[in-house]
């Protein structure tokens, strides 16, 4: 994971905790390395479901599993690795041409995604062969 690519990083968030519990604040260009334009979250996902199966051309994202757990397969066209997201204290940063598949969602999983751009279908590559061609 460490040497996978500079376009993929696990970010440890600063947790503010006291005897009441914990708090994490995500701020654009500070804890999140871009200007957040969009937030969406995936929830009520069936455990045997796989999602994603796409790459982005320009989008930057941070994926945070704020509740439960899930796994993310990431593929830069040369190497693949799987990341377990099971803590609200960490975010998975993905930039540019990275194929991603999300799976093994726990029953209570809430996967929040912070994105650098508004939704734009033209930024998606949804065909794996096209992705491999664009990587070259
Ligand atoms: P989809 O890309 O299939 O989700 P996943 O990557 O998790 O497999 O998106 C599901 C639907 O939601 C699809 O019709 C596109 C739409 N959508 C938006 O309208 N806005 C968004 O920000 C996102 C991420 C998806």
UniProtKB/TrEMBL annotation:
Residues 8-134 form the Sugar 3,4-ketoisomerase QdtA cupin domain. It comes from the Bacteria. InterPro entries: QdtA_cupin_dom, RmlC-like_jellyroll, RmlC_Cupin_sf. This is Sugar 3,4-ketoisomerase QdtA cupin domain-containing protein. It comes from Acinetobacter tandoii DSM 14970 = CIP 107469.
